[in-house]
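1st attempt posting a full record on here, be nice pls
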Amino acid sequence: MPERVFIGVAWPYANGSLHLGHLAGCYLAADIFARFNRLIGNEVLMVSGSDSHGTPITIRADQENVTPKEIADRFHNQFLTTWDQLGITFDLFTNTQTENHQQAVHKIFTILLDKGYIYPETMELAHCSGCSRFLPDRYVEGTCPHCHQERARGDQCDLCGRTLDPKDLVSPQCTLCGLAPTFQNSEHFFLKLSEFQQPLLDWVNQQNHWRPNVVNFTRSFLESGLKDRAITRDLSWGVPVPVDGYDDKRIYVWFEAVIGYLSAAIEWAQNSNQPDRWKDFWQDSTTKSYYFIGKDNIPFHSIIWPAIIMGYGNHLNLPYDVPANEFLSLENRKFSTSQNWAVWLPDYLASYDPDPLRYLLSINMPEHGDADFSWAEFVRKNNDELVATYGNLVHRVLSFTYRNFSQVVPVPGTLTTADTLLLDTTLEIMDQVSNSLSHTRFKIALSQAFSLAQETNRYLDAQAPWQTIKTDLQRTATILNTSLKVLNCLKVILTPFLPFSSQCLHEYLGFDYHIDNDPWDFTYLVDAIRPGARLEQPKPLFIKLDDELIEKETAKLGLHNT
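the predicted structure (as tokens):
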């Protein structure tokens, strides 16, 4: 039976271009999962958007002497272009500036306030005498009190993942002027997280299907004790506080951004002219909700957002799974936007095709441990695996058939044991990949898919149609017909990972509709290869890359090969 699947993807700060670390962290995995679920017939809603209210936006606006809205709008539009070029298939990619989002945040805030889960209290906040202003979290940096990393932010340490307040930091400094802040009293609203410690722990202990890194981090976080957290700040940019007397304050980003998953679903339903349709994904208990994030976002999605949902009530679904990836490094160094140690996605897409990048980041996805991107590995994977293994298989089957059988699918004869074995293997691998993808095991799934390409290459080498065509045209036709059936299955198996090249292969096989309309169904795909159907003249699916590319790209990073 088809299922209904909600996919929420972390909201990127709209303060700069996206880089490979962002893509590997959550966006590629989410897209693979969404594409797969659509192919198997599930009803999917995948949403995200630009986080327009985070302090990184206001910091950049201060630096450029422009408004935060100008910064947020600039990069939101760039994000939309990037997603389109990469084939990231959001049903809605919105932003947190919409009236719809503000209404959703205000509704949840008000209900939690009425229930006593939000309350006002005076707190000490960092204040810079040099800048004459309060300093929201990311305006303060210092040493993490837990892992002792320097330059931890006032809201979170990137290294250990702990959530922080500026006053927790050792030797805090204002990021604008470098002065040590003082701490002054200011009244703000707090979320009573402590109220949800035991309910959250009970719930987390039931999530046996979560990745070990997520469940272990979450359980450890909860067992150490939850503290109530301030959810407003002294800011002029953000969602206003829906309480009289707090006009100079805004709801802080870590509280309102996660509500974006719900507000985006509501916006999508409104855009679909079915305003209540969001309820199918949020209030139907049979719907499975997946949240794709990087590991630095785990506590916000496994603790804070579930706590908000528990407090709010109204039959909203808690997360079914939170598949958080670990970090991607670049040439064995941590990505650093401040030091321009990054491969920016707009720059990559200006020079190279999307599928080779999707392939490398999928086969090297940091699912259970950190991973590294290197230009040398990018070139090697492209040339040895995409070009030599998969691309060569496709091209030699299609070009040989096109050239020797009048540009049509040949009529097969009686299948041999070898033919039947290959088709049986195709069905088996298709089931294996389906099982792996259903459990968000993307690296394994892609390896399984490529094992079918390798097996088909071995089949061709053994059957040698370039030899049999000299003596047995019927046998040759059978070999090629069998191979075309496998390719038709392989194009669908690889569609979640390699959507652009899969569409090309789809068209070379003679189909004139979009590949997304093909089902994940072995029998359907095998039967779709009809004798006499016209083929299109094939071209190579992938381009071999020169080793000079490595030197060129590493030189941009300041590395010099000797």
